[in-house]
Task: inverse folding
């Protein structure tokens, strides 16, 4: 038991009390218990902290770096890590540390945007299929199957090749490969709750389909979809890096970890830091999202609620 | 932690030849805020009789049954002054020896037989396996014996049932299959945990009468755990009433109407009755003193 | 005047070519403020009839009239609010992630009813729960408290009829008594009509004025409460169900067996 004193102890007691006196207390209680669970799971907490750090670096990039991530200085090209350039410089003399910090923005931009596109699309398609059933289910799920049957990187490659290179197109291409598993998950969860008494009760009171899906099914599907999306983050990041690596994602001179690793390839033997540093960054962030996702699976499990 | 050590005299008359003796058994579950007691200092013994354990959900009746079988959930702490089954000290016996005791000498019937049967073997194969194990006979003889057993538990079409998988049989049929396995293994104590709660009235009647015959015929002991007062009082010889992990009263089933403990009386009065209709049912007023026995 | 009239109701499930008849040509009517029981074993069709009345099952044939209105496959909000259902399992009938307040507000929002906070508080008091329970989640409540919430949810639309599907069979005996008393009080106070589905003759006889005994989709007998209490039922199946509610009856009475005696005495 952690030692708490005074105000903190009172706050803690207020938060874990179960005889709520307001909706706000009930909500805060849930959040606080979730937080206690997260703290109780060291690996998930580690993942969470890495992600917080990533967000901090992305937002504070201009403060954290002294070099411009884009300005070239050929006289400084391919310098090894030093006090001035912590992670060395690339073939155009740009600071790798600065590019890494600004690259975090690209990574977050892609992964958040993809998630924002994919979550509602996947949920609506899957939940509609599961709720209505019959031929609607068959049609929607066969479309999902078609998307699922392609390897995701190949599909993303095909779409971004067709749409043309660029970060927005990469986002669309990745989103197209990510939604089918979400839809399947949403359908499976909807089927579980479709015949539950509380859903029937709402139907017998006249609730329409939209109300049932968004008011009743969403809160139940949300945990598993959030877990799935968190676990997907790493594959979004890896696919984005892969597209960047192949020249189809972010375009130069925009800093992007995959593209950085790709361009450093030619100097692998002389300047190891050009590929290694972005590679490690990709690895650490993907791992962090996976650890957090695994932890969330335990914390958000509706069976614990 | 005083409740572990406090002794409580066994109020019920001891059977002359007890199959099972439980003295001051407690079961607790460790949690963040200390051990949560589920069963507290229960003492009873079971002879060649049908003894019922009655209680509401959370009273510790199922935990008691499981602790005797040494099937308590992982992490649970079982303590007792004595836990003796025939010549075996259940507190000392190894898990390996326990494996050979469970099923053969002490058997359990649960509410849903599906969980006690192997889902990927047909019913006949499972019973046959028990026959071969116990009687060391060939597969063909075992099949004949199995069909005979299924007939003994009043299954009308044993040949068809032989080839069914557990998920294909109804609840009543499943319980009969469980009982038929006991006919072969011939245990001296059966612990039945809500064996008929999921069954319809007519099926329940049949299953109970088969169980009744088995107990009478083999002269063995039965612990019948249930929440159904009317059922226990009409089926069992003696009744143990549990409340909040404690035994509040042990009484002959026939004397249940003269129960002394207010909890037992309260339960009886809360029950709607065909023979004694009332406009309003009495609501049980729980006295905190009952928690301390 | 009768509140519910059911004429030649039949319900079939399964493939259109090989339908299974679950309810076969059942007719009955229930008067206002009456409690009508449906008793039988699992699969006899009692819950199916309740589902058809509630609007849960839509593939039925026959004629159902509720409060003077003919009921079709599609019902208006007003028609839905006329009758509300209470389910058997108090753990499955409340949304696990909604607070009690949210659960009770939901029907009011669907029907666009104002004065919501007041009505939530009133209905919580009506079913004997503290008002601050509205901030709790279902998992913080006991089985009996949950069933009270389920009854409150059914009552909040001010229905004329409650359809009770085994409302106490998942509860402990002492809790069952509280819920049965509550249902009796509510019927009197709110002038409600009940249809109670149960497998327990004692519960049905306690609450109902008339009882239909069902077997394989048909009514084998409709008896009054008085007939049950006096033991003057005619059909053997009704007697089987009555015996079942008294407990175990050995095939061959042996010396130690005494017939069940009254429990209050």
Result:
């Amino acid at each position: 038991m952690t030692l708490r004193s005074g105000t903190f102890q009172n706050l803690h007691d207020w938060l874990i009390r179960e005889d709520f006196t307001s909706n706000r207390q009930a909500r805060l209680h849930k959040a606080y218990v979730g937080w206690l669970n997260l703290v109780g799971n060291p690996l998930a907490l580690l993942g969470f902290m890495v992600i917080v750090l990533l967000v901090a670096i992305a937002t504070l990039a201009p403060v954290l770096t002294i070099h411009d991530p884009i300005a070239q200085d050929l006289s400084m090209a391919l310098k090894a890590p030093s006090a001035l350039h912590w992670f060395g410089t690339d073939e155009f003399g740009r600071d790798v540390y600065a590019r890494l910090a600004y690259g975090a923005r690209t990574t977050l931009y892609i992964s958040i945007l993809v998630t924002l596109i994919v979550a509602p699309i996947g949920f609506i398609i899957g939940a509609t299929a599961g709720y209505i059933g019959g031929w609607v289910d068959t049609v929607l799920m066969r479309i999902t199957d078609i998307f699922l049957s392609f390897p995701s990187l190949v599909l993303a490659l095909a779409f971004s090749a067709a749409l043309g290179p660029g970060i927005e197109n990469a986002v669309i291409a990745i989103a197209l490969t990510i939604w089918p598993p979400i839809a399947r998950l949403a359908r499976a969860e909807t089927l579980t709750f479709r015949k539950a008494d509380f859903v029937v009760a709402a139907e017998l009171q006249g609730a329409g389909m939209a109300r049932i899906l968004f008011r009743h099914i969403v809160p139940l599907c949300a945990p598993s979809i959030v877990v799935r999306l968190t676990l997907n983050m790493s594959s979004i990041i890896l696919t984005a890096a892969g597209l960047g690596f192949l020249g189809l994602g972010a375009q130069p001179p925009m800093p992007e970890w995959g593209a950085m690793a790709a361009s450093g390839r030619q100097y692998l033997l002389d300047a190891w830091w050009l590929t290694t540093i972005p590679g490690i960054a990709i690895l650490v962030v993907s791992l962090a999202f996976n650890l957090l996702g695994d932890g969330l699976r335990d914390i958000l499990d509706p069976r614990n609620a | 932690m005083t409740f572990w050590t406090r002794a409580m005299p066994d109020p019920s008359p001891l059977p002359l030849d007890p199959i099972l003796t439980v003295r001051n058994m407690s079961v607790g579950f460790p949690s963040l805020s200390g051990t949560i007691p589920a069963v507290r200092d229960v003492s009873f013994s079971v002879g060649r009789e049908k003894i019922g354990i009655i209680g509401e959900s959370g009273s510790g009746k199922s935990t008691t049954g499981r602790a005797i079988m040494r099937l308590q959930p992982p992490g649970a702490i079982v303590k007792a002054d004595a836990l003796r089954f025939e010549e075996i000290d259940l507190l000392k016996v190894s898990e390996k020896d326990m494996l050979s005791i469970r099923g053969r000498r002490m058997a359990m019937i649960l509410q849903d037989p599906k969980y006690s049967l192997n889902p990927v073997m047909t019913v006949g194969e499972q019973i046959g396996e028990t026959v071969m194990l116990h009687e060391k006979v060939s597969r063909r003889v075992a099949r004949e014996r199995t069909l005979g057993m299924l007939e003994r538990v009043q299954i009308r079409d044993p040949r068809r049932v032989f080839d069914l998988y557990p998920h294909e049989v109804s609840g009543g049929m499943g319980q009969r299959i469980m009982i038929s396995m006991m006919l072969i293994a011939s245990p001296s104590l059966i612990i039945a945990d809500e064996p008929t709660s999921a069954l319809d009235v007519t099926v329940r009647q049949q299953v109970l009468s088969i169980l009744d015959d088995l107990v009478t015929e083999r002269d063995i002991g039965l612990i019948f755990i249930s929440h159904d007062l009317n059922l226990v009082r009409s089926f069992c010889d003696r009744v143990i009433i549990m409340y909040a992990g404690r035994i509040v009263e042990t009484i002959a089933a026939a004397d249940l109407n003269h129960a002394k403990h207010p909890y037992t009386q309260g339960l009886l009065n809360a029950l709607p009755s065909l023979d004694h209709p009332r406009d309003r049912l009495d609501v049980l007023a729980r006295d905190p003193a009952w928690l301390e026995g | 005047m009768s509140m519910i009239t059911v004429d030649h109701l039949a319900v079939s499930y399964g493939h259109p070519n090989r339908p299974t008849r679950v309810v076969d040509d059942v007719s009955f009517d229930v008067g206002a403020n009456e409690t009508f029981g449906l008793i039988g074993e699992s699969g006899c069709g009692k819950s199916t009839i309740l589902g058809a009345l509630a609007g849960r099952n839509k593939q039925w044939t026959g004629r159902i009239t509720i409060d003077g209105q003919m009921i079709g496959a599609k019902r208006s909000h007003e028609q839905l609010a006329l009758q509300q259902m209470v389910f058997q399992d108090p753990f499955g009938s409340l949304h696990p992630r909604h607070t009690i307040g949210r659960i009770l507000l939901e029907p009011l929002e669907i029907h666009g009813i104002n004065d919501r906070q007041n009505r939530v508080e009133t209905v919580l008091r009506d079913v004997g729960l503290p008002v601050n329970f509205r901030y709790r989640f279902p998992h913080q409540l006991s089985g009996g408290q949950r069933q009270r919430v389920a009854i409150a949810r059914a009552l909040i639309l001010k229905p004329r009829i409650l359809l009770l599907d085994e409302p106490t069979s998942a509860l402990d005996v002492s809790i069952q008594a509280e819920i049965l008393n509550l249902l009796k009080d509510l019927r009197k106070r709110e002038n409600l009509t009940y249809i109670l589905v149960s497998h327990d003759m004692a519960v049905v006889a306690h609450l109902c004025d008339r009882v239909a005994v069902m077997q394989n989709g048909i009514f084998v007998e409709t008896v009054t409460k008085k007939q049950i209490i006096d033991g003057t039922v005619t059909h053997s199946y009704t007697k089987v169900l009555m015996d079942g509610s008294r407990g175990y009856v050995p095939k061959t009475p042996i010396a130690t067996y005494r017939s069940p005696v009254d429990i209050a005495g």
Notes: The mean pLDDT of chain C is 89.
